Amino acid sequence: MQGQMMDYQLTLPTLLRRSETYFGANEIVTRLPDKSFHRYTYADSCRRARALAVALQALGLERGDRVATLCWNHYQHHEAYLGIPCGGFVLHTLNLRLHPNDLAYIATHAGDRAVIVDQSLTPLLDLFVDRTKIEHVIVVEDGYEQLLSGVDPDAWRDPELDENEAAAMCYTSGTTGMPKGVLYSHRSTMLHTLGVAAGNPMGLGISERDAILPVVPMFHANAWGYPYLATMLGAKLVYPGPHLDPESLLDAFERERVTWTAGVPTIWMGILALIDAEPDRWDLSRLKGMLVGGSAAPRSMIAGFKQRHGLNVVHGWGMTETSPVASTAQLIGDLQEADEDTQFDYIAMQGVPLPLVELRHRDVDGNILPWDGESMGELEIRGPWVAGGYYDTPEQADRWTSDGWFKTGDVVSLHPRGYIQIKDRSKDVIKSGGEWISSVELENALMAHPAVAEAAVIAVPDPKWDERPLAAIVLREGATATADELRAFLAPDFAKWWLPERFEFVAEIPKTSVGKFKKTELREMFSGIPA
Ligand code: ADP
To answer: What is the 403 CA–ligand 1 centroid distance (Å)?
Structure first.
């Protein structure tokens, strides 16, 4: 027997209408390049998003056409997040930190027809636009305003899209291999938004009363869903513009009474160092949570924020392919009453999945592994906001199993209570004497040493063991430590064969376009050198 409910389509115009109707007076604030603040309301934003949809139609773009953005985090980018999909087009966020050759490849592969670009980024666009099929270049501080002022926002009609039509696309940032396009549907975006809201990490969930500052760039995996989540809930949004240095961020947290913020660990390491140095300079009493993800949040950082400043780090895990949020830190059952040390142990893992997301891990022979907190295997995932394929890349079809799971490429163990513990990316795990060494665990341990600012561990070839770990270390300013000291610091917590023989002291760890350790570059730097 079939159910008898409406076949209501999950499409983004629902969010636009809801936000205008119920939260029109709530604020969206942007820090402009000159550091002043631009303020307007959701009502203004939705009106301009509708105008953008109408204007793109007037340019001759058709349903399903890709409209790219090359922008920092600001209110016009927010309008594009809503206006482009609500016009029936596909929002394609371009990563402004990529090389022009990569951008040429990505924009061409996606078939972008138009681009909205910040004035300050037009020199970058000029380096690759001729190699693409982009016909319309719309500069935010210039043509964009003219475009909007030339149309009547009330001419917008809901295109009544099928929920499975594409709303947005984003290419993986290419930490491993060529960038691959992920094509989000209206349905997956709506369900991801609801899923993130329902996830309620560590009981600190977000509502209309919150003020959210996404540090995570809007060109990186839907800005982790915050533009849509805030629009759905009516929460105040604070966009930092191009000002992502710790001092500017702390200033914005205080002035705009930010309650929730999110970004990769390197950002928070910088912030922690600054507030450690000047603990009384900023009033952060309203900040209830910082979502940290994209790479592993070191336990020492989680503990440092909580113990020295009373601030909650909420760990999250996800991928471009998973919209991106798939799991967040939770303290389930008696863990809510556990001592702080035990709680930090759990928060330092990669959390439990959001509702509707399912996980398993398998060994190289395809056997499903037990959730014993030890057995290591590749994490596989399925759910309504997980990619079912890459855009026009049939050669990658083997990333999906025949029974419908996506192979993440992350090597994990799963804890008996369901927590994910990421040990490595499969390409980064160190294979030594037939056993696996987790670079992430060694890095976390090293970053707990008081003299260490950053640590990245990579595999270097070894004639006897196949591979051995090498630790690249950035020391804190004015601090000293020797290789022997660091090895002795690790020794109590690791098997002897896990300890790196080689430590290289470097001025900085090379980073990817979204601020993760770029291990490919480290391997190039150190692989040839004998231990
Ligand atoms: P890229 O693949 O280019 O790095 P993504 O942002 O899609 O871009 O990266 C997803 C990957 O980032 C995951 O597969 C995982 O390896 C890593 N990652 C994300 N969050 C965490 C986390 N909390 N801890 C450890 N690794 C993480």
So the answer is: 24
Whether 321 sits among the annotated catalytic residues: the reply is yes
Bond into 201 cis (ω within 30): no
172, 193, 259, 320: the active-site residue: 172
Domain boundaries along the sequence of the chain: 12-352, 353-425, 430-526
pLDDT given at position 189? 98
pTM greater than 0.90: yes
The yes or no reply on domain 430-526 and CATH 1.10.60.30 is no
Q: Enumerate residue ranges in the chain where pLDDT < 70.
A: 173-177, 528-531
Position 280 scores a pLDDT of 96
353-425 has which fold? Answer: Luciferase; domain 3 (2.30.38)
Looking at the CA of residue 316, tell me the nearest atom of ligand 1.
23
Residues 6 or more apart in contact with residue 458 via CB below 8 angstroms? 428, 430, 439, 469, 470, 472, 519, 522, 523, 526
Instruction: Give the Å distance between the CA of 318 and the centre of ligand 1.
Output: 6
Which residue, among 466, 462, 475, has the nearest Cα to 526 in the 3D structure? 462
First CA to last CA across the chain, in angstroms?
A: 68
Q: Are strands 112-117 and 66-70 parallel, antiparallel or unpaired?
A: parallel
| CATH class, range 12-352 | alpha beta
Pocket test for ligand 1, best of 106, 295, 320, 380 (most atoms within 8 A of CB): 295
